[in-house]
Structure formats: structure tokens, C-alpha cells
Hints:
single chain, alpha/beta, Rossmann fold, 2 domains, 5-stranded parallel β-sheet, 4-stranded parallel β-sheet, 9 strands, 15% strand
Amino acid sequence: MQHLLSADDLSAATATEVLDTAGELANVTGREVKKLPTLRGRTVVNLFYEDSTRTRISFEAAAKRLSADVITFSVKGSSVAKGESLKDTALTLQAMGADAVVVRHGASGAPHRLAGWLDGSVINAGDGTHEHPTQALLDAYTMRARLGRLAGLKVAIVGDVLHSRVARSNVRLLHTLGADVTLVAPPTLLPVGVSAWPATTSYDLDAVLPDSDVVMMLRVQRERMGDSYFPSVREYARRYGLDAPRVRRLPEHAIVMHPGPMNRGMEIAPEVADSPRSTITEQVANGVSVRMAVLYLLLGGKG
């Protein structure tokens, strides 16, 4: 595999290899010197056209722990602000000898276009409302670490599915790995064609909770909403927010996830986000190990 553009690029065997490799690389974070020489001499470019904290820093930390040279490309201080096209930016990176480009872009499909212009590997760090495959991998890694398995798990993904690239990648990857996914949202926040996805749908969060092993809350992406998709924040929180009374409806072993950033008090109550069931900070930590594994498997064997 040269690129990671979609969760559909990952077979069950390949995804499991990434998760297993991440488990081995996680041991590095416990060492005094958190570095391996694996990618010494390689150049990884972080090309972020959209704002990001967790994903950008996570990829930067992952590449540096593997001893790669890291260039973080800021759109605001670049020729992109002067109107340079994505293709011309790609050709510039190609001329500079980038071995891997980690790209986040507001346009769905932008990483696929880059992959056609670059000789190096392209990793999709989020494109529009399309996909975010490494987030799905770190979520799967976290579920497996907490619950010991993925096959047969019942996972509820709740909230703004319409605008969520995280939901799209998770549905694809979790289905590949044998989990059963239920999408829970108001009708206005489910995309057209969702019936073709490998998941069931529900409008009733309370009915889904008692049978769920994992509840993944999605951020309501108000910055992508030009229209009113629900009556009010208060009404949304009442119908689809995860609060303490709802958590008590979950099985005792169930965990609560969120890809971040969170709207505390809207899709998730503060006491739930900070509870022992919550894996939110674990997801961030696991993201570094998983992205190390992706970079290692894409670049480590070259040459």
C-alpha cells in the first residue's frame, strides 16, 4: 500500500497489522528517549488547509519519534494565500523530495488528487465531509485496548453524522473488522443514501444505549451548517446529548468516545467526558502510536 486515502483502502488483515504495529510502537512512549531511527532521512510534510490541533500535532509527534524530518506547511503564510493551486503546491513538494504528505483539506477528494501528482505517499488527515481514516484506526485501537476485541462489538455513533468524516471512516473500518454499527441522529443530520452504508440507523438514543458496547459522540459542526438542522441547542442536548442519566442505561463495561473537539454541555455532559468510562484522552495518546504505525508501514520498508 502506497497511500492511505480512505478506510476502504484497508482490508481486515492490513488494518489489524496497523493496530498490532501501533501496539508495539506504543512501548516507545514509555521510554526515557522516545525515538526510533526507523525513518531517519525521510521527509514528512504536514499540509493542513484547515485548522487542526490534535491531528496535526499527533502526526508531527509521530514522525519525529520515528526520526523523520518534519515540515509543517502553514497555508496562511504560504503562496496558497496568494492563490496558488493545490496542483502547484503538490509540484513544489515533489521538487523538494517529500517522501510523505499528510494532508487536511476542506474539499472532499483533495488527497486523491494529490496522490496522482506525487511520487511519495499521501495520507488523508481529513478531506471535507468525506473521510478521516487515521481517526478511525485510532478509535478502533482504543476500543480493542479497552474491550479486548472488535469483532461483534455493538458501536453507536451519535450526532452530526451528516457533516462527519469521522463517522464515514469509522463505519467502513468497523464493518471491515466485524463490529456492528448503529448511527443515531435526527433525520436532518443523516446524509442522503445512508441506507446503503454498512450500518443501521435510529432516531432514538435511549433505545440504543442498553445494547451498546461503545458510544461515540460526534461534535455538532455548526461551522458547516448554513441552515437550522434542529430547533435549538437545548432541544438537541435533550434528545441526543449524553448525560449522566443516559450513561447509567449503558452496560457496565461500555465505554464513551469522542473524536474531539467537544461541545461540552451539548453533545456530551462535562461529567461524562471526564468520567472513568471516557476514553477521550486515551484516543489522543493512541493517535500518536497509530500514526507512527501508518508512517512506519508506508515508509519504513522503502529503499
